[in-house]
Design brief:
The chain is about 45% helix and about 15% strand. The protein contains four helices and six strands. The longest helix is centred in the N-terminal third of the chain and has 58 residues.
């Protein structure tokens, strides 16, 4: 009888205290929590980075559309022969500016993201073939060998737009926009201005009618 009891106790083994079992469970839970945090943080960073790049890509799409709309509005501007060439250039630039900002969509068309210098509702009437008005630049040229060639090319007189009406010339509209960076770590991978914003410049070129 005693042999049977001893054999049963030996087979079952000594009883494990409840406190030790509870400690093992707590240790397992703590380890799982640490592993969860170790996986969650990189995952959150990836998700936020996707959101950041999505915002920048969306801004790029909006700016591309805005530059095209601005160039299109400038090419259909009706030249007023009762005023000077410089005055008409200022009004044409204003038409391009209005069309471009109206196509901004969800982007902000105000400083510090985007700003334009105007006088009496028109762009500053700079002399020459290039007008720089804050974050909007309008240039005219007779031709461009490639899409990345300067308009006009200062070392090639044949690229200068001759007609005062700009008819038949190329009108190049450049829009510059500054986007906020909401993820500091991602911002370190991108080129930024002195204020920590990502700068995008989009250019569209069309023929003046």
């Amino acid at each position: 009888m005693r042999g049977q009891i001893r054999s049963r106790l030996g087979a079952a083994g000594p009883a494990v205290p409840r406190a030790r079992l509870a400690a093992r469970r707590d240790h397992g839970r703590g380890q799982a929590l640490v592993e969860f945090v170790a996986v969650l943080l990189p995952l959150l960073l990836i998700v936020v980075a996707i959101v950041q790049f999505g915002l920048l890509f969306g801004a790029n799409v909006s700016l591309t559309n805005a530059a095209r709309e601005g160039a299109r509005a400038g090419t259909i501007y009706l030249y007023d022969r009762n005023h000077t060439k410089a005055w008409n250039d200022g009004q044409r630039c204003a038409a391009a500016m209005t069309a471009a900002t109206q196509a901004f969509g969800l982007l902000t068309n105000a400083s510090p993201y985007f700003s334009v210098t105007t006088t009496s509702g028109a762009c500053t009437t700079n002399t020459g073939e290039t007008q720089v008005n804050g974050d909007l630049t309008v240039a005219y040229c007779a031709s461009m060998p490639t899409s990345t060639s300067p308009c006009p090319n200062t070392v090639d007189p044949t690229t200068t737009c001759a007609p005062d009406t700009r008819e038949g010339c190329l009108m190049q509209v450049s829009v510059t926009y500054r986007s906020d960076i909401i993820v500091p770590l991602i911002g370190q991978l991108l080129s930024r201005d002195t204020n920590g914003r990502f700068v995008q410049k989009i250019t569209a070129t069309m023929v003046v009618n």
